[in-house]
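Researcher: Structure prediction, please.
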Amino acid sequence: MVLFLEFGLYVGRRGDPNRANGIVEWEGTAERVAFHPPYVLIFDQRFIEVRHIDKGKLVQIIRGTDVRCIWDGRGATATPITGPGPEGWGDPTSQECRVHAVMKLEDGK
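Model: Predicted structure follows.
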């Protein structure tokens, strides 16, 4: 998947658009993106959008104020994940690297 500010596009090995999967439009504007198989996290100032990478299905929206990704997991010591295995993406809880985000607290809470 190739990711842009407002959408993601599935592409083949040579970079040609994959018409079978098409375009996935984000709920907001991607200010930063983190790939954490089997999910892609799109960071907007108002929320974190979590999508499953295979079909682009929206899994969760985590709302906040002034949301920022401060570490997207790159450079972690975990073994790099290059694609799904024979059983798919497997157990996502077994990964070593994590994604870190911050957001402002609402007044009075």
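Model: The first strand starts at residue 2 and ends at 3.
Researcher: Thanks, that helps.
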